[in-house]
Task: structure prediction
Amino acid sequence: MNGILASPPWGFFALVAYVPEPLGAFLQQMRETLPGNDRSPAHITLLPPRRLKIPVEAAVEQARAILDDFPAFNVELCRVCRFPETKFLYLDVTEGSAFIRDLHKALNTGDLYDTEEFEFQPHLTLGGPVSPAVLDAVQQQCELNWGASHCAPRLTIREIAFLWLSPGSPQSEWRQVLTHRLSPSESRSTAAAATLRSRTSTTDPQR
Result:
């Protein structure tokens, strides 16, 4: 949750999926060894922080209506990578990446639409920015730590957390205002795809 300065009238909004235990605790230990850790639990961001154009209650209802069309899904975390622009380290997502992109595309519409600072890429942030002088060494150590994990890298995302940063609040005070449980029914994947096609064909992306 970095890089946002000016506070809009209704604050900021984001959607994330927290990593369940025991993998979540292991990743948190990894993250605590890196610079820039905001101490938030290990998570995959589905809708990056954005300035709210509407009250948070209305934003929550819009997001819930979209998420109702999406089922629980599997994610597999892979290798340690870096973002060259920001010097942040992250875990790449293999299985589940296309689903997360579709979910982001569906959510980033209407009053929740915002132009992302960077191209959206499914990932789990480990930490950063890391000084260029030690970036290679730090990444190598992270790779060793990740390789030593006894936790399965594959997980099922069943819940989405709605986060809100109220106007004027410091970045450390993001609050979870709701948890949305995804449907367990795989049959809803088809409905989600149909909904996404409908939204992208009728929604003005500049809204």
